[in-house]
Amino acid sequence: MMLLEAAGLETFYGASQALFGVDLAVGEGEVVALMGRNGMGKTTTIRSICGLNPPRAGTLSFAGSSLRGLRPHRVARLGIGLVPEGRRCFPNLTVEENLTAAARAGAWTHTRIETLFPRLAERRRQYADTLSGGEQQMLAVGRALMTNPKLLILDEATEGLAPVIRQDIWSSIRKLKEEGLAILVVDKTMSELLPVADRCVVLEKGTTVWSGLPEELSDDIRNRYLGV
Ligand code: ATP
């Protein structure tokens, strides 16, 4: 059974339609890459799933129950952890307090987050706004994990980070994948994204135009929809 299933999603910003029919599925333990050029609807798709921009049409279900009409906190409680674009942490809380604020009972603890991101252990009592960009991103992932999600959604988690820090983020994603977490990931760097992806979904102008295995992404599809 698919964990997340979306079909025919249509989402608007006021009167302006951004999604015209997005189809997407993520299975248990699967890593799905959501791809497409700038402005094609990746972030809007994620916001639709999480209840931040509820779709006006389509079906959307998670672990067998509908997400349509659910507020964001309800979606989170069902087991979807979001790492939003722009890594939003509480700037005037410490690393530890940021993690505590997100915590819900389950397998993820401060210790486990600090094992995944040893840098966060070193910065435990530091305010989030004094962290480097990479450390803030690790904290944003840590916060999402503290909710004990069944599905983790990452929107541009490596954006603007130095190569060595990007590798830290990707290796944490690999570890989470090995532990069986389902992950939906948007990232501009295809050469880093494709090796971790089990499947790809490609958006063009708010519509799913292709989905398949990373090795099936032909030059034609890359040229037509991904601008490479
Ligand atoms: P990027 O990689 O640039 O973030 P994206 O694929 O995530 O792009 P979206 O941000 O989902 O694309 O944008 C999809 C469409 O919705 C675009 O046409 C965009 O201009 C529009 N859009 C996004 N946010 C808003 C908003 N707050 N108000 C109005 N239109 C918006």
UniProtKB/TrEMBL annotation:
<dbReference type="InterPro" id="IPR003593">
    <property type="entry name" value="AAA+_ATPase"/>
</dbReference>
<keyword id="KW-0067">ATP-binding</keyword>
<dbReference type="Pfam" id="PF00005">
    <property type="entry name" value="ABC_tran"/>
</dbReference>
<dbReference type="InterPro" id="IPR017871">
    <property type="entry name" value="ABC_transporter-like_CS"/>
</dbReference>
<dbReference type="GO" id="GO:0015807">
    <property type="term" value="P:L-amino acid transport"/>
</dbReference>
<comment type="similarity">
    <text>Belongs to the ABC transporter superfamily.</text>
</comment>
<dbReference type="InterPro" id="IPR003439">
    <property type="entry name" value="ABC_transporter-like_ATP-bd"/>
</dbReference>
<dbReference type="GO" id="GO:0015658">
    <property type="term" value="F:branched-chain amino acid transmembrane transporter activity"/>
</dbReference>
<dbReference type="GO" id="GO:0005524">
    <property type="term" value="F:ATP binding"/>
</dbReference>
<dbReference type="InterPro" id="IPR052156">
    <property type="entry name" value="BCAA_Transport_ATP-bd_LivF"/>
</dbReference>
<dbReference type="GO" id="GO:0016887">
    <property type="term" value="F:ATP hydrolysis activity"/>
</dbReference>
<feature type="domain" description="ABC transporter">
    <location>
        <begin position="4"/>
        <end position="228"/>
    </location>
</feature>
<keyword id="KW-0547">Nucleotide-binding</keyword>
<keyword id="KW-0029">Amino-acid transport</keyword>
<keyword id="KW-0813">Transport</keyword>
<dbReference type="InterPro" id="IPR027417">
    <property type="entry name" value="P-loop_NTPase"/>
</dbReference>
<protein>
    <submittedName>
        <fullName>ATP-binding cassette domain-containing protein</fullName>
    </submittedName>
</protein>
